[in-house]
Each structure stands twice: as C-alpha cells, then as structure tokens.
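Service request form, structural biology core

Requester: graduate student, group of Dr. S.
Request type: structure prediction, single chain
Budget code: on file
Notes: please return the result as structure tokens.

Sequence provided:
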Amino acid sequence: MVAFNGRILFDSVEFTTGKATVERSVADPVVLEMLKSEESTSRTTMLNKEEVTQIVVPLLEPSGGNISSL
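Core staff response, request fulfilled:
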C-alpha cells in the first residue's frame, strides 16, 4: 500500500518475513504520477531483466479524494 505522495505504507515482504523495513518512498516519477490518479492505471516495464506489470488501484474517500493506492 502506498500513500498518494509516494510513501510506502505496507510492503508484502514485511508480511511474509514479519520484519518491518525502514521508511521508504517511491522514487520513480512515472509511478508517482500514477499514484495521483483517481483511476486504476498500469504499465509494463523491465525490472532486473524481467518484464513486470505495475498496477495502481486508488483507494478513495467517499467524498472522492485519493487517500492511498494499492
């Protein structure tokens, strides 16, 4: 889970290992723009020589404001 400002709130690695990581933020400017959207977005990119699809699904307040994204 990532806040709309890019701060990482939850990482699945923390869940599987039981270890919390240091506070981190998203650095990729394209993903930061995706986080600001109020619609689901995706892109395919290369990561460590593997094709990866990144999907951002916003979690919205009832009034319509983006509070975080998955």
